[in-house]
């Protein structure tokens, strides 16, 4: 049985975080937009896993999709999105992530747009799968 309440709790946080990432993009805070896109997609995949009653832990979207793929078919493109988003989990947040300079100096609009597009695709997939679970 699908736990709709737990699913909605996590998905609403994913959507909220995605809106925050969009605000960061519009305000030119590109590194934060990338990090929050990763977070939004992570929450979304966890939403589906928790809804299905599957334990989800960790922060790697790719690893979470590995777990999900044991339950349902996950398109390869989603794994591509996950790998790209996972690269934004640590570097945007830590001043020593790069050899010199601050992390925000390494991010641009193109990075943020790509991350947001990937997060939206992950969230859309999660919604479709949850609708099918009823």
Brief summary:
By secondary structure, this protein is mostly helical. 66% of the residues lie in helices and 0% in strands.
Q: Low-confidence segments, ≥5 residues, pLDDT <50?
A: none
What is the overall silhouette?
Answer: elongated
What's the helical proportion of residues?
Answer: 55-70%
Please tell me how large the radius of gyration is: 15 Å
Describe this structure in words.
With 134 residues, this protein is mainly α. 66% of the residues lie in helices and 0% in strands. Helix 1 (4-26) packs antiparallel against helix 2 (30-51), helix 2 (30-51) runs parallel beside helix 3 and helix 2 (30-51) runs parallel beside helix 5.
List the main descriptive attributes of the protein structure presented here.
single chain; 134 residues; mainly alpha; 0% strand; elongated
Layout of helices and strands, plus pairs?
Layout: H1 4-26, H2 30-51, H3 61-68, H4 76-86, H5 109-133
Helix pairs in contact: 1-2, 1-5, 2-3, 2-5, 4-5
